[in-house]
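Sanity check

After download, print the first record. It should look like this:
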Amino acid sequence: MKKIIKIAALSLFGLTLPVAHADENAIRQAFSTSMPEVKIDSVKPSEIKGLYEVAIGANIFYVSDDGKYLLQGHLIDVAKRTDLTEEKLGNTRKQALEKLGQDKMIVFKPKIAKYKIYVFTDIDCGYCRKLHSEIDQYMAQGIQIQYLFFPRAGKGSDSYNKAVSVWCSEDRNAALTEAKKGGTPAAKTCDNPVDEHMQLGAEFEARGTPMIVTEKGTIYPGYMPAKQLAEALESEANPK
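Expected structure tokens:
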């Protein structure tokens, strides 16, 4: 993904993709030639004439109809004051999380789940710990929390190793809760999804933790109290 962003940036300075014709096959061929490791999920015309929308994982890019330029950014409907790209990114995030699967997350379930959220968390992050210390309040609001790990210090860091150890624990929920309280989980290794979590967080452009993602793919960066989050989720589920 870093390579895609780098190429997008270079394109703005005049470097071009070798696309001969403005159609889906030509665009796919151009990516296949320039970035064979990248898998395109879809190519379709955007709201702007002459600009194609290219979905790659949880990201959306734009390619000119002559195939020469690739743009990275958000498309805004000025009159409606609507971020068209963000609306579509919500759907790609939702699909990416569903593809990962709940079995690769640590889930805290209320008795009756009214809402489900995904939380990218760092065991050693202060506000992540604050959120988890109030887990009973989120459960009381009917919010199911599905945790993914995003150790900000990166792979191999102390936080990363704690995440792996928690995942490999016999009782992941209990191990996570203990680690959030400042305990050090017993060092363990096993097959784990931590790297997948981190890759997904990077694709979602996580800037910090906790990062909350709703069922519709909306991102709320940072900590939100249970009641405030429940109100936001209700508004999303039943827009006026």
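If your output differs, re-run the checksum step. Summary of this record's structure: The first strand starts at residue 42 and ends at 45.
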